[in-house]
Design a protein that fits this description.
The structure is a homodimer of 421-residue chains.
Chain A lengths: L8 E7 L12 H11 L3 E8 L3 H14 L2 E5 L10 H8 L4 E3 L1 H13 L13 E3 L3 E3 L8 E8 L2 E8 L3 H19 L4 E10 L3 H12 L6 E7 L2 E10 L2 H19 L3 E3 L5 H11 L4 E5 L5 H7 L8 E6 L3 H8 L3 H7 L4 H14 L4 E7 L14 E7 L4 E7 L4 H20 L1
Parallel strand pairs in A: 1-2, 1-3, 3-8, 13-14, 13-15
Antiparallel strand pairs in A: 4-5, 6-7, 7-8, 9-11, 9-12, 10-11, 15-16, 16-17
Helix pairs in contact in A: 1-5, 2-3, 6-7, 8-13
Chain lengths: 421, 421
Amino acid sequence: MPCYTSPVHAEIIAIGSELLTPHFSDTNSLYLTEKLNEIGVDVAFKTVVGDNPDHLTSVAKIALSRADILIFMGGLGPTEDDLTRECVAAAIGREVRRDPELVHQLHERFAKLGRKMTENNEKQADVIDWAEVLPNPLGTAVGQWVDYEHDGAKRYIMLLPGPPHEIKPMFDEQCLPRLRERVPKRFLATRVLKIAMMGESQCDQRAAPIYKRFPDVQTTILAGAGDIQLRLTKSADSLEAAQARVDELAGLLEDELDDFVYSSHGESLEQIVGYYLQMRGATLAVAESCTGGLLSERITKVSGSSRYFVGGAIVYANEMKTLFANVPPLLIEQHGAVSKEVAVALAEGIRDECRATIGVGITGVAGPTGGTEAKPVGLIYVAVATKQKTDVVERRVPGDRARIRWWATQQALDMVRRALI
Amino acid sequence: MPCYTSPVHAEIIAIGSELLTPHFSDTNSLYLTEKLNEIGVDVAFKTVVGDNPDHLTSVAKIALSRADILIFMGGLGPTEDDLTRECVAAAIGREVRRDPELVHQLHERFAKLGRKMTENNEKQADVIDWAEVLPNPLGTAVGQWVDYEHDGAKRYIMLLPGPPHEIKPMFDEQCLPRLRERVPKRFLATRVLKIAMMGESQCDQRAAPIYKRFPDVQTTILAGAGDIQLRLTKSADSLEAAQARVDELAGLLEDELDDFVYSSHGESLEQIVGYYLQMRGATLAVAESCTGGLLSERITKVSGSSRYFVGGAIVYANEMKTLFANVPPLLIEQHGAVSKEVAVALAEGIRDECRATIGVGITGVAGPTGGTEAKPVGLIYVAVATKQKTDVVERRVPGDRARIRWWATQQALDMVRRALI
């Protein structure tokens, strides 16, 4: 992976002692990174520091020496622990001054909410000398923007609030336009290819000879259980030039990986299955044993899924398999609940019971207990029954309960997709 | 939140350019922080840096100046981008030397896997002068431990591999024992109270006057949709002393919050509902409309749930409500699918169909589309039917589709719990 493609580097600094506990992690920085990358800025450092004035001031000084863009997140509230304003001011040798207009606005804001403003809240009206105030319609803490020069080099410094729903609009609407005016113009083009039910090394073996011929395009492989994302990005002086290269590579990869690619613009497998079902005027019903509702949950996570998903049954106990999907008790007795035959009967039974076009049946051993030598943990059967035929697949899935269950639903969705191609 | 309770501070440094993209975040540090806190060490800084030798060396030097314990994660592989060994050595003014015994072990490891070792892999046998090698049975990159002195102060430096399944056992088995010998003995006691279906501010209003009387116990509130965690931790010279204070505070908070507290040792709501069902010899069946399988999925995520969960139905289409849960079509016509009456009929119907002790019915508008003035997005009905009675609750849940669905399942689980108390 090429390290830096841009001459302009940012450091993102998250402030708050809670971010140094085992319970919280900084998620804002991923969002900001994506937006910075889009305008051609690379993130070179990320730092997390607690509510300690010495630490925070020293972190600010270090950032000044090594990054062009400094983004401070958090520490703008009214409490004693909120020190970002003072410490950044100290690091750049400026003062903070209480802005009477902001004090007035704070009082008005509290009055509107019918609450009395306590003294300490006035602190949120402290502004670093010559900083621009970034209004915050969603909270009491305003942001600040500072243009600064450090050893003859330009520095763009932002003080932003920590809550995600405050920082995102403030960054998008107030910081990005300012940055666009100040940094050299770069455009970023991105494509995401998604691949189902292919091993990561098998995928890379086929894809690498192709993407290696495009060293100017950054290719990142993200692999999950039964799901791979190939992310292609390129930055260039013009969006057309960047997009053309990314599209060219995406096309070649799609040719090579063929129908393993289920989506080429970032859609989820659930969404793609939904599109296909609607396109074919088909409906879906499912009977889940070991996945316990996860398949239904994934399908119905998509808004509007009621147009093609009629419903289904969680057939955890054997009697439920008979009650809801009409599986003959004798069949379960003969082959066991975890068997190819029962998966097929579940798929066909639920299809008929629900009068759907397509039925899915899943049975297996999700573990960690309940495995036997003949039917070990990780053994799953997935069947998909259309009007024409029923396909069934047997797999041994490695991993824990969550992974086995996820993998079975991934297999099921991919089989439905392939049945509709 | 008190900032630092310990005199020994750590800095955790994650290395890898991929960690500076929008797609990856460092998750190892949360695990390490928990383990460090347990032996009385606070984390004072977290840094993420890319595969750039100048950046990495300078980050190492900065960490030496401000932390007692330096944990470097990643950058120990065989590629050109793997620079942690060289850069840490440079920062502390030492050399790296190729260890012939480690080279031999690498060759053996590859031979065992039936693969030829490429030249570049030998790099993984480079050891910083006077460092202790930390064997890695789960990968090719060994770790390294360095005892160092900086300006007369002791520094403990660890170089650890990036993959979570390699770093965790290496840290637990090889680093923690070394740290325990070197840092002043501190013991950490923790209790987690979990609270369902109570607002965060309402909870804090009742809890704060109590936990504020225990300034020596660190109280952290984590709030999700319909779920609050109160985490109580205290470090002290003896585990008994720490535990006694934490237990005392936990007891007082439990008295105050009463039956809103569903778990006092960290169990999930799904697990607690499972315990109660087993304790009462009861069984559960569910009929889900707007939650689309999420409730079943949460219940069956718990291993062994087949002992009390018989199954249920996803009754997305109206006909499914009739087919699986025996809801009279006329009832749906009269009151609408999203109504108190249909929720009750679903709960009672699925209970009877599945011959379970308890039945749950959920119906609602998860959005973002499908809302009307009379039945807006976020309106949900949850009913729980036991043999004795049926309870039903109507709620307007703010938020997006995912939050509304989660909230409805949380409400359902809490109602089942309360029915079993």
